[in-house]
Design brief:
The chain is α+β, with helices and mostly antiparallel strands. The protein has a single domain, classed as Umud Fragment, subunit A, CATH 2.10.109. It contains five helices and 16 strands. A seven-stranded antiparallel beta sheet has the order 1-2-16-7-8-14-15. Strands 11-12-10-9-13 form a five-stranded antiparallel beta sheet, covered by helices on one side. A two-stranded antiparallel ribbon has the order 3-6. The C terminus is likely disordered.
């Protein structure tokens, strides 16, 4: 029996079956086609998504998007839930055949709004919890609630805005301002790190847990528009790249300080 099993896995049908199982339950490969997550993820990054990070998504027939286990909520096993700041791979709520990758900025029952491109967030756990998470100087009180402004930009250096995008009638108003939004239960609010060039929850709403597929695991290949291979991104996780970005910035600032120390005016 064991010899037959080994023989099967060594055959072409066995190899194809193995790849399908891996793709369904463990890891799925994706290509980043747009700049909505620049500079955290770049156009041309090819990555594996860890499919078991938030439970086990309902397996589908590859390329046909047909669920093999009917009548589920999108998962055959509900595991850990996304945390604030996680990068998430999910099915686009308007077309489940498409996969999007964005950063989770708000959890169920969190409240948020955008003002002058800035994200303001009130955690569902309430004011006392927020006081434990943030220095008082970082919190803003509006009526009886505490809000934190741009809570992710200090830690996740890839988050940025485009100074060329201005309120002039050419761009969607959601980039600059939104009304107060309360995230529905069991749903998650997603935004791209390239904030002014991202089609995300500001425009089509929050993402149900059932559509969440996983989180980026590591980049296995990366190539720019000029077909140059970005070796420095190979086999890196998004966390690795963020830490490198922070270190590079610190080194550049130190170099500038050293130059100023030795300058003669």
């Amino acid at each position: 029996m064991l010899k037959k099993l080994i023989s099967f896995w060594n055959s072409w049908p066995g190899a194809i079956t193995f790849v399908i199982i891996i793709n369904m339950f463990i890891a799925q490969n994706f290509v980043i086609p747009s700049g909505s997550m620049k500079d955290s993820l770049l156009v041309g990054d090819r990555l594996f998504a860890k499919k078991f990070a938030y439970g086990i998504p309902t397996p589908t027939i590859p390329f046909l998007n047909i669920e093999l286990v009917p009548n589920t909520d999108g998962h055959i096993y509900n595991g850990d839930k996304p945390k604030r700041g996680d990068i998430i791979v999910f099915r686009y709520p308007k077309n489940h055949a498409l996969h999007y990758v964005k950063r989770c900025v708000a959890l169920p029952d969190d409240e948020l709004f955008i003002n002058n491109k800035n994200l303001y967030l009130h955690f569902s756990q309430g004011n006392e919890y927020m006081k434990l998470q943030y220095n008082e100087k970082k919190l803003i009180k509006i009526d009886d609630k505490l809000w934190v402004k741009n809570p992710y930009q200090e830690l996740h250096k890839g988050i940025h805005h485009d100074d060329k995008i201005l309120i002039n009638g050419r761009y969607p108003m959601q980039i600059f301002e939104t009304s107060l939004i309360k995230v529905p239960k069991n749903e998650y609010f997603m935004m791209g790190d390239n904030r002014d060039h991202s089609n995300d929850s500001r425009f089509w709403g929050s993402v149900p847990y059932g559509l969440i597929q996983g989180t980026p695991w590591f980049i296995y290949f990366s190539m720019d528009d000029n077909y140059e291979i970005r070796w420095e991104r190979m086999f890196k996780t998004p966390t690795d790249l963020e830490e490198k970005s922070i270190l590079d910035k610190a080194i550049n600032e130190r170099i500038k300080e050293d130059k100023n120390d030795h300058a003669i005016y």
